[in-house]
Amino acid sequence: MRICVIGLGKIGLPLAAQYAGKGFQVIGCDVNREIVDSVTKGVSHIKGEPELDEKVKSSVKNGLLSATTDTVKAVGESDVIVVIVPLVVDKRGNMDYSIIESVTNLVSKGLQNGSLVIYETSLPVGDTRDRMVPILEKSGLKAGRDFYVVFSPERISSGVMFQYLREIPKIVGGIDAESTRRGVEFYERVLDSRIIAVTSSEAAEAVKLFGMIYRDVNIALASEFAKFCQAKGLDVLEIIKASNTNPHSHILNPGVGVGGHCAPVYPYFLIKNASDLNVDLILAKNARKINDGLPEYTVNLLVKELNDLNGKNVLVLGLAYRGNVKETFLSPSISVIEHLKDKGANVYVHDPLFPREEIEGFGAKFADLQDLDPLDAAILVTAHKEYEDLDLKDLRERGVTVIVDGRNFLDKEMVEKHGIIYRGIGRY
Ligand SMILES: NC(=O)c1ccc[n+]([C@@H]2O[C@H](COP(=O)([O-])OP(=O)(O)OC[C@H]3O[C@@H](n4cnc5c(N)ncnc54)[C@H](O)[C@@H]3O)[C@@H](O)[C@H]2O)c1
After folding, report:
1. Could you tell me the distance, in angstroms and rounded to a whole number, from the CA of residue 182 to the centre of ligand 1?
2. CA of 111 to the centre of ligand 1 (A)
3. 361: pLDDT confidence band, cut at 50, 70 and 90?
4. Of all residues in the chain, what percent are helix, strand and coil, respectively (each to 5)?
5. Is there an atom of ligand 1 within 6 Å of 86 CB?
6. pLDDT class for 92, splitting at 50, 70, 90?
7. I want to staple 141 with a disulfide (CB 3.0 to 4.6 A). Which of 146, 160, 161, 365 is the partner?
8. 299-330 per-position pLDDT tens digit
9. Which residue's CA is minimally distant from atom 25 of ligand 1?
10. So what's the pLDDT on residue 51?
């Protein structure tokens, strides 16, 4: 079995390395020549992914992993084609299909009798069958008769790829029973996790979107609980922890907001799908609204303590949307910076993963934790590991009187011990 992985990004390269690690011949395709050259040399261009450097190096060395920009040729030499290029989406969920459609056109040009094409890129329900199959059939081959098509959502996350590849069951749904059967057979050979077949590609597409919306709604609910606790003088974390001792309760932790390419965006796929069917996903829509409002809510916690932010120096800890990941797409930090500036604050930003130029690109002053300007307050937005050892004594000496902990991440007692007021999300 020869496998072609199209899109050697944060997800595609680890997948290629995983398949090669199982002893299969893998060709990775990418439009980016630098990425192809780097992989060809056995060097991963993705940083901070445990196990990846070693797996890419050894797979290339033993001749199982190669890379190319020639997708048509690679598809022509492969039995299984895995597509994991992005579907570009703006913050309202408007989709730009140009990349995935142009890749699908290339696949159709190289497609061979008997091949299996798998889409792993998150897609709206129905797209595999209604949008991708007609393009693939430009090959002159008939889906379900001459070649097979599967949707299998990628539910893993960058930064923990190989751990999740082992732990999270793989969902497989084909455009017909034979496609599903072949998809299951493929994943059983290349993964160690449990493989779960669902009855259609539409069901598999929906699995990913339902999971994302469940999470978004859960976070919105947790943040409403947080607001209640804030008003009532209760600690939301204590209550959530106790509540979750009931096996039917799975409340997540509230926070400063939801960012990244997935969680804030994919709900709109299903919201659009549903509105085409005259189904109104009220909870999903409201969760988006509530979660988009969390950065402003967090800034207002600071306003409550300082009364007026005009002229105040506020340090924002973290630019990334998620701890220990260098990604700012829809990061709550960007919204926090905007709200602070709207209120007249001088905004300083620190993030261990971002250099000065990138931070200044977001209209904030660069903060060096070793050499801070005088400050009035701080807001923690990203739970970076580095902030576990935040120098609270130094922050107090620089003038910080309040810390708003947007991730309920810091040790409240420690903060207060240093003479700093602590405010978490739903915590007094
Ligand atoms: N990043 C995550 O944590 C995550 C988690 C779950 C699912 N996903 C899914 O995986 C998809 C890809 O995410 P990613 O993080 O790997 O993206 P990425 O931006 O890191 O990588 C995408 C790769 O595709 C390449 N590419 C773009 N156009 C191409 C083309 N025409 N032909 C070949 N290659 C092309 C890019 O050069 C890049 O290397 C997402 O759209 C999403 O559906 C991502």
Report:
1. 24
2. 21
3. very high
4. 45, 15, 40
5. yes
6. low
7. 146
8. 999 999 999 999 999 999 999 999 988 899 99
9. 7
10. 96
What is the spatial order of strands in the sheet that 313-317 belongs to? 365-366, 346-350, 313-317, 377-380, 402-405, 421-424
Q: Which residues pair with 88 in a beta bridge?
A: 96
- pLDDT for 47 equals 84
CA distance 163 to 165: 6
Tell me, using a 6 A CB cutoff, whether residue 30 lines ligand 1: yes
Q: Whose CA is nearest to atom 24 of ligand 1?
A: 7
**pLDDT tens digits along 230-258:** 999 999 999 999 999 999 999 999 999 99
Name the closest-CA residue to atom 33, ligand 1. Answer: 30
Rounded to two decimals, what is the model's pTM? 0.93
Rounded Cα distance, 188 and 165, in Å: 12
Q: Which residues are catalytic?
A: 208, 262
Q: What DSSP state is assigned to residue 131?
A: I
Binding site membership of 29 for ligand 1 (Cβ less than 6 Å): yes
Separation of 6 CA from ligand 1 center, angstroms?
A: 9
- Our answer on whether the CB atom of 211 is closer than 6 Å to any ligand 1 atom is no
Query: Which CATH architecture is the domain 2-199 placed in?
Result: 3-Layer(aba) Sandwich (3.40)
Ligand 1, atom 17, residue with closest C-alpha: 9
Q: What is the pLDDT of residue 124?
A: 96
C-alpha distances out from residue 371 to 31, 318, 394, Å: 42, 17, 10
**Reported confidence tier of residue 95, pLDDT bands at 50, 70, 90:** confident
**Spatial contact of 94 and 129, defined as CB atoms under 8 Å apart:** no
CATH of domain 238-428: 3.40.50.720
| Residue of minimum CA distance from atom 15 in ligand 1 | 10
Closest-lying ligand 1 atom to the alpha carbon of residue 12: 16
Distance 197 CA to ligand 1 centre (A): 24
180 CA distance to ligand 1 middle (Å): 24
pLDDT tens, 384-427? 999 999 999 999 999 999 999 999 999 999 999 999 999 999 99
